[in-house]
Write a structure and sequence with these properties.
Largest sheet of chain B: 2 strands, antiparallel
Oligomer: heterotrimer
Helix content of chain C: over 70%
Distance between the termini of chain C: 66 Å
Strand order of the largest sheet of chain B: 1-2
Shape of chain C: globular
Largest sheet of chain C: 2 strands, antiparallel
Strand order of the largest sheet of chain C: 1-2
Strand content of chain B: under 5%
Number of helices of chain C: 23
Number of helices of chain B: 5
Radius of gyration of chain C: 23 Å
Radius of gyration of chain B: 24 Å
Largest interface: B-C, 72 and 64 residues
Mean pLDDT of chain B: 89
Chains: A alpha/beta (about 325), B mainly alpha (about 160), C mainly alpha (about 500)
Structural class of chain C: mainly alpha
Number of strands of chain C: 2
Chain lengths: ~325, ~160, ~500
């Protein structure tokens, strides 16, 4: 028996074995997802959360982090309540996830819904978004003090997205902490509307995210302060002080997180966490975060739950102070 | 026609009453920031209420003797079409879009359309596949699916 | 001169073979999405957004733009043929397009609407080139009070929209307005008319309601009439190229009106937050109010197709203007395109116009090309589309009904919307039989919600005083116009009566 024959005699079964192991291994790894994954979005097409969700989906299309497509499913309405109810109702579904904002915590509280975030499976916190205070470039306010001085003397008109949601929460918190007159708060349906109304001088201040108002800085708008612990890490924003530096010790962020229905299998949860772990390290995501001033975080499981609990406490306090909760 | 007119006017009146009740709960006064949440609905409800009363009164005077449906045959036809649509809706809720479409398209084309069985089968298959391929594969939209799908037994 | 140079270079971008290919592909996809009820241009753009990461931004935007233009063209097809609005803005096309279809003139109705879409987009494109930036800056001056005045302007043209008894028109209007009140109140954040359920918090959406009201309602009416004497002499749809020639003749006949409607539509579209739907209703209302024979409207008048369709398409193009020039999403579609900009690594905003001329001007130039290509595609298919009406009733009806339900679901993915379509199908059928006008209800559904929001936003600004609508110059002008328009029909009526009395008097 020549060496060559020996090799060929063993080579075939060996190759077969290797191939089958590879296939089996592949199958074991590809257990999740076997089907397309639905991504429920609590906003209409084009809304703020929708844009984030579609950005994340675009990253998956480009890099194939999971072999199945991620399908966006918009369920707007009820300040997120409709989307939450729908995801909650799909108990044990490994192919369903929900992109969440702070309304994920505030809406159940304010609307007195029969569930809270605790009923969902935490998947991942991707980032914390910012709340700078924006004024028009032509306005007399150069610092937070200027603005607060005016707000203490008379009721200032401000605008924001929705009612009893993040933007109004920030303004009501400022009201309470700085002791200003009540703001005249005008609710709009989306962040784009809010930015437009500030650029058009129909109100005096907003707390849009950098992703919404940033394009108008410095041509039309000016940020006075950003309500978070660290300054914004974006070129051009280095001189924008934090709330604490400007004399108003208040930190508030928008959580960009993913939750899923209760009762999921372990593979399902692990698969989703793995997906978002990869997304969180995607260079394009990092570039996007850097450009819009997102603080990238990555929390999962118990840590995310703990984070949400702390967030709930913070919101209960603000909402009680504003008289929205008893 | 007269009976239908009166019933519909009465239903609109009842809807208006419900809204008025809700407006009272929400408050309809003129606050510091303009009207409260119930103000606009209250105005609309009052408009609805008054006009439905007007219709009801003029309906009482109607002596034209026209009937609501054209004739008996038209009535059964309308009832059948609506009835199958109700079945389709119930089907979509419990069986998903695709299974419900198969059942509905077959039922309709056979029972109301009186087509041959071969036509019915070909038509049903083409319609269902067209929706499935177009929505799930082409546009990557997810429509409600049957329990079979969730158990991993079928495509939809 | 500068703009012409830019436009020329933009044409260079848009005329590249790959751009042209992607544009045509986008148009066909857009037409398909437009035909499906419920799936609008916005959804089409959003669905295909992820695909565009593989091509250069300037080609990507031409592709996505083409989907949107395609949907603008294609939305009318089902409105005309089956009274199912393919898009929210094609509801106004039902009013006259569907009666025409029933008279066997669907080919002409389609040809006329495609041609008016073309004129609308071309006129919008001219404004884009001529005065994009100044117009966007002007649009910025429209705050809530100004927008409320515009809404009043839209309502004022609808005084004459109802047919039949005034009390019934009032009922439809009030009912439509009330439907928009269901859901979370935007100003207080509290649920309204939701009866303690979460499901009702989503509120009634325009699309499922109108699909039921018009589409399903008409199916019930047709089914009932199927065996009656009049329907026996089935009018087979004329199929042929003659329709296209006649359509062109009609457009030419009403050319001034078409241009006026397009210009009006474009300006309404540029105002952020309104979009094409109010523009199409406004176009229809104005055309009817100032027509020499308004009694023809609603019974298959071709002007009733041309005006709303050219207005809607001009508005659709106009709604992208604030996004392109200033980075402000004027419509949901624009917001999706904005998300696209991030994905392509571009930074939207006032500087985009200066820093990315190939991108911006490529899109603008592609507008002209897309309108032309789309017109050719549509006209080529018109005879085939009209032939759909020849499919036997027993097969066509289930297709339409299933399309109605699927269409009402895909917009918001809510079972509530499917049930809504069913319920409003019955409501539409009953109301139509009892001669309630449905058009005012559809208009109230679109405008009601916006009007209330703008009103209450304005009143927060003014501490509850109505004076705000008359102290701000733009608002004051629009409001005065609206009041005049409200008064006009009454004045006309008074004059006619007086004339009648005078002429009877001496004789």
């Amino acid at each position: 028996m020549t060496m060559k024959a020996l090799r060929s005699r063993f080579a075939v079964p060996f190759l077969l074995l290797a191939a089958s192991l590879f296939v089996l291994g592949g199958v074991a790894e590809a257990a999740w997802p076997e089907r397309p994954v639905e991504f429920t979005i609590s906003a209409g097409v084009g809304g703020g959360a929708d844009q984030y969700a579609r950005f994340l989906i675009g990253l998956n299309v480009k890099n194939n982090y999971i072999a199945q497509p991620i399908i966006p499913v918009n369920k707007p309405g009820g300040a997120g309540a409709v989307a939450m109810q729908s995801v909650l109702g799909q108990k044990g579904n490994d192919y369903q996830m929900l992109i969440t904002l702070n309304s994920f915590i505030t809406t159940p509280l304010f609307q007195n819904l029969p569930f809270t975030f605790r009923d969902f499976t935490p998947v991942a916190l991707l980032a914390l978004d910012n709340f700078p205070l924006w004024v028009h470039k032509d306005s007399p306010y150069k610092t937070l003090d200027d603005f607060l001085k005016k707000a203490k003397a008379e009721s200032v008109t401000v605008c924001g997205t929705g009612s009893k949601q993040e933007d109004e929460i920030v303004f009501r918190a400022i009201e309470k902490l700085a002791g200003t007159q009540p703001f005249k708060y005008i609710p709009f349906k989306g962040g784009g509307d809010v930015a437009k109304n500030l650029v058009g001088k129909h109100c005096e201040a907003t707390v849009n995210q950098v992703s919404e108002a940033g394009p108008f800085f410095p041509d039309y708008l000016r940020p006075l302060v950003v309500f978070q612990e660290k300054r914004l890490d974006i070129p051009g924003y280095e001189n924008v002080p934090t709330g604490k530096e400007a004399g108003l010790d208040f930190n508030y962020n928008m959580m960009r997180a993913i939750f899923a229905p209760p009762g999921m299998s372990k593979e399902g949860v692990d698969g989703m966490v793995g997906l978002f772990k990869k997304i969180s390290e995607d260079p394009e995501w990092i570039a996007f975060a850097k450009k819009t001033g997102l603080q990238r975080e990555f929390l999962t499981g118990e840590a995310l739950k703990k984070f949400a609990e702390d967030y709930e406490k913070l919101h209960i306090k603000i909402m009680k102070d504003a008289g929205w909760l008893k | 026609m007269r009976k239908g007119e009166l019933i519909v006017a009465a239903i609109f009146f009842i809807i208006a009453c419900v809204v008025v009740g809700e407006a009272f709960r929400l408050g309809f006064r003129w606050g510091l920031s303009g009207p409260q949440a119930g103000f606009v609905p209250l105005g609309e409800a009052l408009l609805l209420m008054i006009s439905s009363v007007v219709i009801f009164i003029s309906g009482l005077k109607d002596k034209s003797g026209k009937t609501f449906f054209i004739d008996k045959r038209g009535m059964t036809e309308a009832v059948k079409i609506f009835g199958t649509a109700v079945l389709l809706t119930v089907g979509i809720i419990y069986l998903g879009v695709y299974v419900a479409t198969i059942l509905y398209a077959a039922l309709f084309s056979r029972w109301l359309g009186k087509h041959k069985w071969t036509t019915v089968v070909i038509f049903t298959v083409i319609l269902t596949l067209a929706i499935f391929v177009g929505m799930e594969k082409g546009l990557k939209l997810s429509l409600p699916k049957s329990p079979l799908y969730w158990k991993g037994l079928f495509f939809f | 001169m500068d703009t012409l140079v830019h436009l020329w270079s933009g044409l260079g971008v848009a005329m590249q073979p790959f751009s042209l290919l992607m544009m045509t592909l986008g148009l066909i996809l857009g037409l398909a999405v437009g035909v499906l009820p419920g799936l609008g241009g916005t959804a089409g753009v959003a669905l295909l957004l992820p695909v565009t990461v593989f091509v250069a931004p300037e080609v990507a935007i031409i592709f996505l733009g083409a989907i949107y233009w395609g949907a603008l063209f294609g939305g009318v097809i089902t409105s005309v043929l089956f009274a199912i609005p393919g898009e929210p803005w094609s509801v106004a096309l039902i009013f006259d397009g569907y009666p025409m279809s029933k008279q066997g003139r669907s080919g002409l109705a389609l040809a006329a609407s495609f041609l008016s879409s073309f004129v609308g987009i071309i006129i919008a494109a001219f404004f884009f080139v001529a005065a994009a930036l100044p117009l966007a800056l002007l649009a910025l001056r429209f705050g809530p009070p100004e927008m409320f005045a515009i809404m009043m302007l839209a309502f004022s043209t609808f005084v004459g929209l109802g047919t039949g008894k005034a009390s019934k028109t009032l009922v439809s209007t009030a009912f439509g307005l009330l439907l928009t009140a269901v859901g979370l109140d935007i100003v207080t954040g509290r649920p309204r008319l939701t009866f303690g359920t979460i499901t009702w918090m989503s509120g009634f959406d325009f699309v499922p309601v109108t699909i039921g009201l018009f589409g399903l309602g008409e199916i019930l009416i047709d089914g009932e009439d199927r065996f009656s004497a009049e329907a026996r002499e089935v009018i087979l749809a004329k199929v042929g190229w003659a329709d296209i020639k006649e359509g062109m003749r009609e457009i030419w006949k009403f050319f001034p009106q078409t241009v006026m409607a397009s210009i009006m539509g474009f300006f309404v579209g540029v105002l952020p937050g309104t979009g094409a739907t109010p523009a199409s209703f406004l176009g229809y209302g104005l055309a009817k109010q100032y027509s020499k024979n308004p009694e023809k409207y609603g019974k298959g008048a071709i002007e009733g197709i041309i005006a709303p369709q050219s207005a809607a398409n001009a508005a659709g193009a106009g709604s992208l203007l604030p996004m392109i020039t200033l980075g402000i999403p004027g419509s949901p579609t624009a917001a999706v395109l904005l998300a696209g900009l991030y994905m392509w690594g571009l930074w939207p905003g006032p500087r985009l116009f200066l820093e990315q001329p190939a991108f911006v001007w490529g899109l603008i130039a592609s507008l002209f090309l897309a309108a032309l290509v789309c017109l050719i595609i549509c006209l080529a298919f018109t005879p085939m589309l009209a032939a759909i009406m020849r499919i036997p009733w027993g097969l066509l009806t289930p297709i339409i009904v299933v399309a109605c339900f699927v269409g009402s679901y895909v917009m918001r993915n809510l079972m509530f919307d499917v049930i809504c379509t069913l319920a409003f199908g019955l409501i539409g059928y009953i109301m139509k039989k009892l001669k309630y006008a449905l058009a005012p209800m559809a208009v109230a559904l679109v405008l009601g919600d916006m009007t209330e929001v703008f009103l209450r936003q304005s009143l927060i600004m003014s501490d509850g005083s109505f004076a705000i609508f008359f102290t701000r110059p733009i608002a004051a002008v629009c409001m005065s116009f609206a009041l005049l328009l409200f008064a006009f029909p009454a004045f006309k009526l008074y004059r006619e009566k007086r004339k009648a009395r005078v002429s009877i008097g001496p004789g």
